[in-house]
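Example record for the data management plan.
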Amino acid sequence: MSVLDALYQAILADPADDTPRLVYADALEDAGQPDRAGFVRGQVELARSAEWDPAWVRATFHDRPLISGSAWTLALSDLPAGVAWAQEAFRRGFPAAVRATNVPAFTAHADDLFGKYPIDSVELVGLRQEDIAVLDRCRWLGRVGRLVLPNGAGRALARRLLGLPGFGAVTDLRVGHVLSTESTAEVVLRSPVFPRLAALGYRDERTGRAMADGLGRLTRPARLRTLDLSGNRLTVEPLAPLLASPALAGVEVLDLGDNRLGPDGVRALAAAEPPALRALHLMGCRVDERGVGALAGSGLMVGLRVLNLNGNQLGPAAAKALAAAPAVAGLRTLDLTDNQLGDTGAVSLARSSHLAELLALDLAENGIGDAGAVALAQSATLGGLVALNLRMNPGIRPAARNRLFDRFGSRVLL
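Corresponding structural encoding:
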């Protein structure tokens, strides 16, 4: 057995431990595979990093293949019929995420799959009642840390699935919307899986508020650090009780994108000031200048490191409000894509004295022209940017583009 083979067996024996992975990367380097070694090290670092850390920001804007593993996907072995690699198959440097469209086939080949790969993420598509007993006999469920139900599940199926004792290691649960109902939300919250969850994603397009209501009724803090309720048609009515509940006490990353919050919902969020919140995603939430003003002047903003206001059609006044707010000084990533900021909004941001710690500023698709681009290039506070995204701003002409490249080099995206 070669050194690489022995190290790989150590990874399979304890997939949760990063040490064998990093030693494996060193061995790859010694074996003349520096690119593969760098990929393993990079993914391990990203897994330890929050989305506002420099390594994650850099990868997001300049090295997406490091996140997705796409450069190594073609080298993956084919899997048995009914099982495929997930869209982003690599986790911490190795193929570990699979998508099962045929549960009996998945369990029949589980010994081979888990014996060859450090699998810890499973998507179950087209799950049926009769599949539960088959899954219950699979001895590898204890390796699954991330469980994804892309099409959701009805009440009875969800209860049986999440009640399986084998899923004792699941800390990340994602439930889709096709089959999910109001009662599915209740099942998730009452399941033995929920108290262990660090991350929960839940979507139910038909009712929208069932999960928000259920979380809002919790009387004890949850362990959740990431909560994704995007695409649920939420309004301020169910959002307000949730924001005041113990469920959000430890949440660091909150995604409320594609909901119907409006300025009232954003004001409720700003007033609640969830204490641990560091990343807030409000893409397409019908936020207007009033909502942005409430955020900018709130104590919530002081703790934020990531603010995503993509696709809210805000206009330059909102950019001015953010730029003038001392509380934005903690931001590391600010996404204002598709907000009609124009040159006026870009100039306000460029002249802000509060954005010196910003690592990423996303101003794509904002109707910015030469005046805004030159102001950004001359900004006294934006020199620390890892990424300045100005794509889809066709009004920026060559001379202004050159000014940007002179200031930011490859850090500017045009």
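Summary line stored alongside the record: The mean pLDDT is 95.
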